[in-house]
Design brief:
This protein has a domain of 135 residues. It contains 7 helices and no strands. The protein is mainly alpha-helical.
């Protein structure tokens, strides 16, 4: 019995075949990786090509954006100080972009002085701009509180300045101020006089 039990214990299941590496598996992995990279590159190039062919909308001209901001400023007509900040900043930014004249950190006096040394605006436009910015500074820094009528007059002065200096037919020529009766070339309306300004001594730290 002992010998029979020992013989039974010696009988074991057949082991599965052992796979002997051929040494070429890494080649297939490399080829698969290269195929994935090539597919990704092909997709990326196709996306870039489609993106390049998409129509690009040109940016809005400076005078169009200025008119939009001036229209939005009317919502602040009941708040003189924020209204004058937005209107005066819009005009200054428009002039800087329209004529490539960069003076963002200048005070009103410095801005007008530097602009006065150029031929970007006509003498009438420079005088109108000076009165406009000084009137805005009275509200912004001298605690002057104008009524709605005066604020609308300032707003109208800003709109007229943009209209008189916007490019003609997409060009870059400066449109001169109308002479004679002093009407706007674009609107035909007689400009409303700027509000009476207080003495310059009342302006505190104008910008």
């Amino acid at each position: 019995m002992t010998n029979a039990g020992a013989q039974i214990n010696d009988i074991r299941d057949i082991k599965p075949p052992v796979v002997i590496p051929s040494g070429w598996e890494w080649v297939w992995w490399v080829l698969a990786a290269l195929a994935l990279v090539a597919a990704g590159l092909f997709i990326w190039r196709g996306w870039q090509k489609r993106r390049a062919n998409l129509p690009v909308e040109p940016p809005l001209p400076a005078h169009v954006r200025a008119k939009q901001k001036l229209a939005e400023a009317l919502a602040l007509i009941a708040q003189p100080k924020p209204f004058c900040f937005l209107v005066s900043d819009t005009v200054r930014l428009y002039l800087e972009e329209r004529f490539d004249f960069r003076a963002p950190e200048r005070t009103t006096e410095e801005f007008l002085h530097e602009l006065g040394g150029t031929d970007l605006l006509s003498p009438e436009q420079k005088e109108s701009l000076g009165g406009f910015l000084e009137s805005c500074d009275l509200v912004k820094f001298a605690k002057y509180e104008p009524g709605e009528l005066e604020l609308r007059e300032l707003h109208g002065s800003a709109v007229r300045l943009v209209e008189e200096t916007e490019p003609a037919d997409g060009g870059t020529d400066i449109l001169p101020v109308s002479s004679g009766e002093g009407t706007s070339k674009h609107t035909g309306e007689t400009p409303v006089p700027l509000p009476v300004r207080a003495p310059q001594s009342e302006i505190v730290n104008p910008k």
